[in-house]
Amino acid sequence: MATCPFRSVLDRALDLDADPATADPGARKEFPLMPVGQAIDMGFAPDGTPLFDPRVMETAEFVRNPYPYYRILRDHYPVYFDKLHNCYYVTRYDDITACYLDDEGFNTIPKGSSSGVLGNTQLELSGIEHRRRRNLYGRHLVGQALEKRVPAIRRLAAEMIEDWKSGVHGEWVVPDPATGRYTVELGKAFANEFPIRVVCQVLGFPDEARAQFFYWYSSMMNGLGGSETAHQGLEARQDLEDYVGSLVEARRKEPTYLTDDDGKILGRDIISELCATKVDGDWLSTEEITSNIALIVGGGGETTRGAILNMWYLLLQHPDQFAAVRNDDSLWDAAFHETLRHSTSIGGQPRHNTFDVEMHGVRVPAGSLMHMVDVSANHDDRVFDDPERFDLFRTDLYSGKLLRSGYRQDGKASHMAFGVGPHLCPGAWISHQESVTGSRLLLEHLGDVKIAVDRMPTDIDGVSLAPIGLGAIRALWLDVELI
Amino acid sequence: MTTTEGRPAVSRTSAPGYRTYEIYQRMRVNETTALIKPRQLTAPEFLVDPYPVLTILRENYPCYRDWPGNAFWITRYDDVTSIFADEANFETRSKLWFYGAEGYGRDLNDELAVLACRASRTDAHARPLANAVIGDVVALGETDLATEFAARFALELLAVQLELPADDLPAFIERYWRMQRGWQWEPKAQLDGRLAMDELAAMLAPLLTARRADPGDDLISVIAGLDLPGGPATAEDLVATLLEDDHETLHGTLANLWFLLLTHPEQLALVDGDRRFVKLAWLEAVRFAPPAQTARRFARHEVERFGRLLPEGALLMCSAGAANRDPRQFSNPDTFDLDRRDLCHREPRGHYRADGLPTGISFGTGKPSKFPALPEDRPRSRYAIVRDTAVTASDALLDAVADLRIAEGATPHLRSLRLGEMRTCWRLPVTFTAR
Lengths: 483, 435
Prior knowledge:
The complex is a heterodimer of chains A (483) and B (435). By secondary structure, chain A is of the alpha+beta class.
């Protein structure tokens, strides 16, 4: 019944009979789960260049198996314009470092949120403004101040582990009377709360408020989005802010101090320090202090928890490396850094370019959202040999003292999990100390330890353990012998 | 890491704690957007029927921040028109920019001679061409109006303007469509579209040369003869001109008009009874179901609008679909009523509100014509050309057939084939009797 002279041409061009489901971002049909390390075939240009479909970034496949896709971006689209999400991805180590170090050209000022809702936290400031505020509490989290805190951190960890045999952890620490062994969920029994306790202590929260604080924190984290727990989360946040507000008012009058084991005063806690701080001749307002504390809590909890869980998950999957760590205590530092290089909780950081720029032939208009993909930089084989391999003995990863500007010389490079440059995570060192100190202590209490495989999610083959992918594993079930 | 199906998977590129806190801050000032999930703006349902989601946006979040899409959705009529009219603060980016091929060729659509040629060629050929196309249709006794009438007529009219050799037509159309579908986000389509542009240029280059030597009164000859500051027009300029031209308007509005008339038989009877209603029906169809649903604008610099600070470079998704159903402008906006009294029937040039009435937004994807319709020796705008052509073609169809109705068992509907593409009726099987 057709008379149109080009009907077949038109039908082909429009592909009308294509399954409408394929228009669904994340449709499983088009984006199935692949073996780890292998990308979905998204087509090729005639010259052999693989194409990159931005919809893949919204799929479950991408979250569990991101590295082959980032490899495509690094190798073929070092600056990728994602027209579906109206943003640019920068994926190579050297490019990201250059952008991070250029605080002026690639700023962190928030775009499009309603009137700077986060208040004056340094995450959103650039240049001199940022430098002024960044040092407000950064010095408490580094160097000697931190060294002196380590025994206290260790004591916090010890308290938590001592509780394991007491039964207070309920279903998360389960003894098996037949074998005398325990089944432990390391997250619930240790890693979720430990970093929060450290944060509480450094901030100077009273010990008795700790349980309440953890409840607020968990409610906020669980209440994300439009879920049913959102209301609870909202209340928790309000309560937390009211509480912090009252603490701040109290500390303004009467500062409190952190002490070492001998009761010697190390200095004011962070809240007291912020109360006594002037920026540009003005005292910080209570709102500013509260915002900063929320930032410390948000940044100090989830991420360190993820680092601890990922580290144990990876080590236990490489028994030879785990044995090496058990034999040589000092390898924990390398294990920590290699974990963060291999699988970090934070994918990257957004930046906005202040000026029109051209990178790798791509012109980026001023004000564009540019994602600096840290996890991709960490897997850049221009920097790290065989980047998908977990190997704490690798010689190309710098695991010494972290430098603010990043480290790359003599064939060694630091990983990028903490960012680079002016916005380098101020909690990098304390997070390192928490993970390593906590893990050392854990190991002292654990005899034979292995992953309780039957309780862990498996990969698509139904046998091997699921990969970490982006972010951190949600739970880590261990089958342990408690000493 | 779980790989549960259905879990909303997002690429995590910012610290979770940071985002958590921001969300709670927004909740506190009651700035939550809990009635909608941003994924709904890219879901398959949105391609078929965007209106439920757009209504939620328009009535609750008139300047909705779509975080995953990194855009602001503007959905109220006055807001959308205020952006279109504000060239000082908001810019359009060409399809070539989206192709990443700026500088490929010049867009000559605003040249007076080009516009005049379009108008005269269209006026001369629209009715004979419509008669010919409909003649073929009538000979069959049943047909698919979407392809055999709307698509075919629009594309053949374009070919007539260019005076393409008949043998070249299928190849031209294939490339033209690949080009028009390629500038959006789909990587395969983009690659294909970019190749199609080169193929089109190669195909049109000999014609351009030949007609420069021996000009006729067709569009290619006119473009070949233009005296441009940067030198004479090249085949790439011609392709760029074709690319930037809105191919949606004639094809899409014709198909949507007839889909709506056939699904509202009482309105069809009205049109059939009094042909003066054809133009009103077309205007109302364009309001009720604009083929180009969304126009993109970018903020030239930081600017405060709609209670927000829009950052430099912000992408504004100006939704014609939502604005045209804005109850602040139109009574019973979700009714297709060609006798409506609150729709302006004059040309929406610059989207001002002529006669104090809104015109409906349908041609917002390009900047308004720089040639006003008056004085009379100026050519009509592209909008007016398309409108008159659609009316002529529909008139011809009504002249030729009677008892037009949707084929039994068929369930035609409007949809976009891909995110961001035109929303129209792609299959419209009908039966009729010849007059």
